[in-house]
Amino acid sequence: MKRDTICVQGGWQPKKGEPRIVPIYQSTTFKYDNSEQMARLFDLEDSGYFYSRLQNPTVDAVAAKITALEGGVAGMLMSSGQAANLYAIMNICQAGDHFVSSAAIYGGTYNLFAVTLKKFGVDVTFVSADASEEEIQAAFQPNTKALFGETISNPGVEVLDIEMYARIAHRNGVPLIVDNTFATPINCRPFEWGADIVTHSTTKYMDGHATAVGGALIDSGNFDWEAHAEKYPGLTQPDESYHGLTYTKAFGKGAFITKATAQLMRDLGSSMAPQNAFLLNLGLETLHLRVPRHCSNAQAVAEWLAARPEVAWIHYPGLKGDKFYDLAQKQLPDGSCGVIAFGLKGSREDAIAFMDRLKFISIVTHVADARSCVLHPASHTHRQLSDDQLREAGVAPDLIRLSVGIEDLSDIIADLAQALDK
Q1: How many other CB atoms are there within 10 angstroms of residue 74's CB atom?
Q2: What is the predicted pLDDT for the residue at 394?
Q3: Per-10-residue mean pLDDT for the chain, 422 residues long?
Q4: Closest CA relative to residue 86, chosen from 174, 180, 179
Q5: Prior bond of 155 cis (ω within 30°)
Q6: Which of 262, 351, 377, 389 has its CA 20 to 30 A from that of 13?
Q7: Are strands 123-127 and 98-102 parallel, antiparallel or unpaired?
Q8: Which residues pair with 245 in a beta bridge?
C-alpha cells in the first residue's frame, strides 16, 4: 500500500465478522486453555497475548501502522516519546557504555541523556547539529554504542544531515537512532537515508489533536548486530532471564524490538493504554492530510514574519537563505514541519509580552497539533538548562517557538499581526 492508504487502512485488516475499526481491547489479561500454552508464551516460544503491559492487540495494530509508514520491520508503542528514546538507548547500552548525540534536541531528551542516563552509568557526548564529519568522529570512544539525532530539532528547527550521520555511525559499527517526530514519515523516512532505528513522540503530529501522550520505537532491521557482536552482548549473547535465549538467533531482524519488549517493557513498564492507541489511530488516519496543511501554513507565516520589522531573526528550513534550506530541499522536498523559531527585537520581556497579547494562538507546553500554539522555551520547556546548555542545544534566550496549526491562514496571521502591532 502507498503511504496515504497506510494512514487509513494500515495495521488492522479485519476478517469475516470482525470489527471494521480496530477495537479497543480494554483488558489487562488474556485467557489460555492450559498451563503449557502460557508457559510457551513466557519462554517466547509462541507469539500471543497474556498481559497488556507487554503487548495488547489494539496497541500492536497501531504500532504495525506506524512501522509500515516508516518502512520498518518491527515496532512498538509506549507511554511517551521520552520512553521511546529511553528504550532506544538502553536497549543497546548498559553501565559503562557511551553514545554520541546531536545537541540540537528537545530539552527533555537532552536532560534525559545528560543527567538521568548518567545515573545509570551511561555517558553521552553532545555535538553541534551542523558539526563537521571530523568533529562528530572525534566524539566517538571505544565504548560508543550509538549515534542519536532529531530529523528536525525541537525547538530550533535545525535539520539533521541523516546521510552523513549514518555514514559516521556505520563506519564506527554503531546504529544511527533518529527521532522523526517533527517531520513524520509523511515528509521524511529516515531509513531511506541510512538511519537504523526511529523514535517518535506520537503525542505530536501523529495524534494531532492533543488527546493522548505516546511514543513509538521502530527498527529498520538493517543493522547487523551479529557483525558487531562484541559491542551488543544483550542482543547477541544468551539472555539468562529467558533460559539462555539469544535474540538475534531466535528472532533475526525482529531481535531489537523483541528484546525491547521482553526485557525493557517487562521491567520498566512504560506501556501505552489501549484507549490511547485507539485515539492515536484516529489521528494517523488523517496524518497525510494534516501535515501538508501544517507545512503550507507555516511556510506562509514564516515568509510573513521574515518581512516584519519587529522580527530580529527567524529559522525555518523552508525559507530561502535559511542555514538548512539546501539540506531540507534534499531530505524534506515535500515540506519540513509546522514549527517556526524566531526572535523579536528587544528583550526577553518583549517576547513574553508579545505572546501574552495573542488571542487564539495559545501559550501551551504542547507543540505540533491541529491548533496553533506558542512557547518561550528558555522560560518553559528548557528552563532547567543553563544559558550555555541552551546555546549548545540551539535555543537562544529570546527564541519563540511557534507551532502553526491547520486553521485558516488569514486568521493565524491576523492574530500575530495584532500582537506585534501592540
Answers
A1: 21
A2: 65
A3: 96 94 95 89 85 94 98 98 98 98 92 96 92 97 98 94 98 98 98 98 98 98 98 96 92 97 96 98 98 98 98 97 97 98 90 94 94 88 73 77 98 98 92
A4: 179
A5: yes
A6: 262
A7: parallel
A8: 239
Amino acid at 153: S
- d(CA 191, CA 176) in angstroms, rounded, equals 10
Burial of residue 101 (number of CB atoms within 10 Å: 0-12, 13-18, 19+): buried
- What is the residue-wise DSSP string for 230-261? TT-HHHHS-BGGGTTB-HHHHHGGGHHHHHII
DSSP state of 21: S
Query: Which residues, in sequence order, are bridge partners of residue 362?
Result: 373
418, 359 in Cβ contact below 8 A? yes
Query: Amino acid identity, residue 50?
Result: F
Rounded to whole angstroms, the Cα distance separating 296 from 316 reads: 12
Which residues, 6 or more positions from 119, have their beta carbon under 8 angstroms from its beta carbon?
none
Measured distance CA(128)–CA(33) in Å, rounded: 56
- C-alpha cell, 370: 491541529
C-alpha cell at 350: 518583549
- The phi, psi pair for 379, rounded to 5°, reads -95, -15
Angle formed at CA 199 by CA 194 and CA 203, multiple of 5 degrees: 145
Q: Measure the CA–CA gap between 117 and 5, rounded to whole angstroms.
A: 39
Grid cell, residue 255, equals 531481535
Q: 366 by DSSP, 3-state: which?
A: coil
Question: Judging by beta carbons within 10 Å of its beta carbon (0-12, 13-18, 19+), is residue 186 exposed, middle or buried?
Answer: buried
Q: Which three cell numbers stand for residue 48?
A: 500471543
